[in-house]
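User: quick one - fold this with zinc ion bound?
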Amino acid sequence: MSHLPDDALVEVMQYLDVPDLLSCRLVCKRLAALALHRDAWRHRQLACSDRYLCVALRLAPCLDKAELQLPLRGRLMIATTTTCAVAELKLTTGCAKRGAMQAALLTRHQASLGRLKRLSLVFGDEDTSPCPWLLFWTVASTSGLESLVILGFPSRFDRISKKRKYLPDRPVSSPSLKIFRCDFHRKSASFVHFILAEHAETLRDVSIPTMTSPSDPVTASLLASIPNLSGLACPLLPGLDALAGRVKEGLCYAQLVVSSAMRPFAPAAADFLRRANDLWAFTLSIDSGDDVALELVEALVSSGGSEVREVGLQGSLCALGVLQQMIGKLTLLPSLRVLKLQGPPAGPRCVHGWLHCDAVKRLMYENRRVRLFAYDHLPRHCQDALCPDCMTGCRRTVLSQCSQLMNRVVDNVADCYNSASGKRRMIREEDMIDIYMAPF
Ligand SMILES: [Zn+2]
Ligand SMILES: [Zn+2]
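Assistant: Sure. Structure tokens for the protein plus zinc ion:
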């Protein structure tokens, strides 16, 4: 082994697990030094539950990702003084009040080490703490981030943040964010607008889901001024039609959240869809307001020349009849290749059940290139308690219509495109911003 060059040894060390890598430090001086080489650590991801996280923070020069559950107790000192620079930091806290100060310290410390590119902050579902304004001030003023994901943005504000002191007075040094995802509501609006304005030059994928639309047109105009926007998930916004121009210039994936409260903004959204002929993929997340959702699908198919390849209908709160009406309209999309479906609890319990829906069957017969993808990992057939469709026995006949259509069911949407011809022009799979399905 002494004849092997350092590069080769480090290459091998990349494949050792953390305990074995640390054991190399006890073998000889040369291996001890190589065991702490950046290349032996840069791809590693460690979480709070990992017993070697503390040792790594003490010894390792870098990590790809560190995942911490806040508030930290015994490990706070090492986490805020470590020289181990991480590229991705994911901080989860059940209560913003207790975890936010630590999150701000950790973010600031890692930013100072110069390698932090991706930051995720996850707050508890029912967190009613006041907004941790210091944390958001820190995040907004952190430079060099490429991805920022904030889930469960606390919706209560304390008195200080009412004065908007949670945003820096001066702009960030230079725009860097490419991916931005944040819950959007009245309390987070100023923060979201700050990020959209400051990072407009570099942003590519923006996801700001909400069930209650803001009523001012600022958000849509900020989105429209992002030159390289390629993926967008947002509610129906006033002024959304201004985004139509972006489609020509690269916006290829759009996801709209619909609720009945957003009815006043439906005309602008319909106008956007009528003019967005070059859109590659479109998803509708229906919370309520089935009629509004149907109107939007009609707008999407109205031009007839639409390039849309993928349509997703997330209708877990939608009436099955209306969902079928929407699917029926999709026969007018000549380029459609993938239909992604999520039905209400009363809807099909298996993919086979979907194939028995008249609208799905008709679409798949009229457009022979359409493949079907079911959200929620629905089984292809019922296993135990059979649904009425599985009980018919048609699944056992190899030549039945269902068996043939089943060949066009996919478990992974990316499989529908082969790299030579139908290259998927979409954002990378891991950046997908489907609101309900993204596991975090
Ligand atoms: Zn079934
Ligand atoms: Zn069948």
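One thing worth noting: DSSP finds 19 helices and 13 strands in the chain.
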